[in-house]
Amino acid sequence: MRSPCLGQTKERPPLTAGPPRVTVIIPNWNGRDLLERMLPALLADIAGGPSEVIVVDNGSTDGTAEWLASAHPDVACDV
Predict the structure, then answer these.
(1) CA distance 67 to 36
(2) 68 membership: H or E segment, kind and range
(3) pLDDT in tens, 19-56
(4) Separation of alpha carbons 29 and 17, rounded Å
């Protein structure tokens, strides 16, 4: 049962019958080192549900796009 919100007293049905769809968009510029450290934890957290991760790369020169393609081919990289 949900707790009342803003004086609401009647119980409402869930908004969706299934799990929510999650899209994570990560803006990036030369952040490969951060992605290497943080992306595995993010992917583990959202695993099992309908989700997607999109890295929007702004002309990185640190090999981000190449690394994503080899290490995480399931992560979309828009350049």
Answers:
(1) 9
(2) helix 64-71
(3) 668 899 999 999 999 999 999 999 999 988 888 999 99
(4) 38
